[in-house]
Structures are given as structure tokens and as C-alpha cells.
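RECORD TYPE: protein structure
NAME: HlyD family secretion protein
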Amino acid sequence: MKKSKKNIFIAIILIIVLLCGWLLIFNKRAKPIVLVTERPAYGYIAQSVTATGTIEPVDTVSVGTQVSGTISVINADFNSKVKKGQLLAQLDKSLLQAVVDQDDANLQTQKSSLVLNESTYQRQKMLYTSGAISKADYETALNNYNAARAAVANAQALLRSASKNLSYADIYSPIDGVVLSRNISIGQTVAAAFTTPTLFVLAKDITKMQVEAAVDEADIGTVQKGQRAQFTVDAYIDDLFTGTVADIRLHPKVTSNVVTYTTIINAPNSDMKLKPGMTANIVVYTKEASHAILVSSKALNFVPDSTLKNDYIIQYYIKEFGKHKDTINGKTAYIWVTSGNKISQVRVVTGLDDNNHVQILYGLLPGQQVVISYPIPGNINTSSSILPKPPESNSKKR
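PREDICTED:
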């Protein structure tokens, strides 16, 4: 009897297990696939070029000397603010003054000789007219007189040259500006025999700086004068400085087989933070759109497969552009939109693409639900609405 009850109990347990298995196997329904979607929205998008460069003053002047000598006076130092015509330095004038004195003495000698030869010439002229002397004597007197006049002119030229060289001993500032570099010291000898030595380097206005950016040849085709640029420097890593492309120099530079073109970017420097020689990390915005319909770039790569047929009605429908198809410049692409249990293929025209978001020029409305991808394992959130922001709102703008 006990054995019979035990068999009945085991049978009941087996029936329960089989019933549970049947319920799990036959009543379990696969959960529908929930696609990752997002709604298009208006936002900012841009295409840009990155480069590195060096901060330099807009206008610099090298001040040198045209005469050799020893530095005796220095009136300006690094960072000194100078005015146009201000005495910066002075060479020892003793030797130059001696040359002036010698040439002046020579001039006086030649003038005295001219007076003597002129008197002789006038006397010989009178004697020749009266027939008292030969023509040869008259011509000799005339020649001596002309030579004396030429000697005076030569002595005057030498004196002017010596006086000018003496004036070059005073080194004046040619502009209003700031001394960036001082390459001399008192007692130093400078020689101007073959090349003009640089004594000072002056910056005209350091409240206006420029960035000399090295743009790669692969990117230079999209860079144009007037485009907006932003850059950072290591000294003020949290500050974002702005500028404008002012010039693209045609002369290429080749470094390790890499061809770059120097691109000049003007940058205001009213707060004097930018200093010559700083390294700048630059972004040049070649194309921008501040009020564009955007979707994630991944939407362009989504393609439905057979796993969706059980849960969705797939419609391969191409939306026609009508009268707008010939007036919109862009690339044709296909994306999928969902509504309920339907996903439909839509043909769109795309514009800017920053690899994260793409601009939709035509074919899509902001309210439509765009399919981005299949569900991501472990990711519960199946919708996305994160849009890029203009760079001004991401950093402290200067």
C-alpha cells in the first residue's frame, strides 16, 4: 500500500514537471525585437580641419646697424615699449668722428687749393688773352683749376659719407612697438662688413597676433580665406581662442615627406595672454550649419534582415523628391523609419557629416522615428536624442 502511494506521488511529480516543461516550451513566446531609434532634431553640425601652429606677432621689424663698432649705450631691453624715433642703442663714435674730422680737414685743404688754382687760372687767362704766354701754359692752368674743383667736390662727398656713417651710430626705433629680442650687450663689437647684424626685434602691436598653422595637403583644399577658426594653447588649456583665416601661402613645406601649407590665422590678443612662440592646436571650421536636421550617422548603415519579419512589416519604399530633387545639392542615402509595427525605407539627401551625426537636407521630418541599429546587449535605452552643440558652448571662449 505504501509502495502504491509512493508510485502515485512520483507520478504526480512527473506530471507536474512535464506540465511545466510543456508550458515553458509551447507557451513561451519570443519577445519582439525592439530597435534602437531616435527622432531627428535641429542642431549644430560642422566639418573641420585640425592643425598645429605657432603664435607670432602680425608685424615684426628687425633693427640692425649699417656700420661696425662697439656698443656703448643701450636704452631698451626685452619687453620694453618703445616709440618711433626713440634712441635704442649707440655705437662708440670716436673712430667715426675721427673719420669725419679727417674728411673735413681734407675738404678745407682742397678748398684752399681751389682758391689758389682759380687765382692762377684767372691770371694765366689774362696773360694768354694779351699774348704774353703760350696756349700750353693757359691750358695747364685751366686743367689745374678744374682738378681743384673736382677735388673739392670729392672731399665734400667723403665728408657727407663720413657724417652719415656717424649718424648711423645712433640706433633709433623705426616703429611704435615692443622689444621682443635684444641681441647685444654693452661692450659688444658688431661688424657690418657683409651682413647687417640684428640688434633688436620689435613687434608693432602684440594686441593683434597671428597663428602660422601647418595644414596638411590632404586638408588644404577645403580651407579658405575668411573661415572661422578656434585654437588652444598649453598655457591656458581651458581657454578657447578664436580667429579668422587670413591667408593661405602657396609655398609648400616638406617635412619627413609630409607636405604642409602655412595658413595664417588672425587672432585678437587684447588680454595679452597669447605670447610669441606659443604652440597652438587649431580647428578650422570649413563648413557649418547651425539649424540643421540631424540624425546619427549610424542610421545610414542600418539594413533590416530576416529576423525582423516576425515582428515588423518591412516596406521597401523610396520617397520621391518631386520638384525639389533638382534644386538640392547633396548626397543620396537611404534610412529606415518606424511607425508601430512597420519600418519603411526612405530616400534622403544628406549634407554635412561629422562622423557622429549627419545633416538631412531633404526627405525626412523632425517628428519621424528613425531606426539607428539593432538592440545593443545590456543597453535598455532604445532611443537617442543627443545632438552636437556649437563649439562655443563646450569651452570658455576668448
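COMMENT: The chain has a mean pLDDT of 87.
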